[in-house]
Amino acid sequence: MKFGVIIFPGSNCDHDAFWTIQQVAKQPVTFLWHDSHDLQNCDAIIVPGGFAYGDYLRTGAIAKFSPVMNRSASLPTGRIGARHLQRFSDSV
Q1: Which helix H or strand E contains 6, and what residues bound it?
Q2: Mean pLDDT for the chain?
Q3: SS3 letters across 25-53
Q4: pTM, 2 dp
Q5: How far is CA 27 from CA 30, 35, 44, 76, 82, in A?
């Protein structure tokens, strides 16, 4: 399974998410710039939180209009429950 971690201007958890997927989960991962239309064949998209500069910018509202978010909205969706996460972490 290939993961993509979206990078937004001012986000500060994107590198943490990338490192964890690569080093702990041992899964292929790539960064996806927020302005990109290409999901680079990712199976799962990580949207990091923790914006480094002010919530007054309404980063969620800004992200809504990013091309990568529009593109990722076309992916199949599903909820990952604790049981699925446990099975994934057991397999790592």
Answers
A1: strand 3-7
A2: 75
A3: CCCCEEEEECCCCCCCCCCEEECCCCECC
A4: 0.70
A5: 10, 24, 11, 20, 19
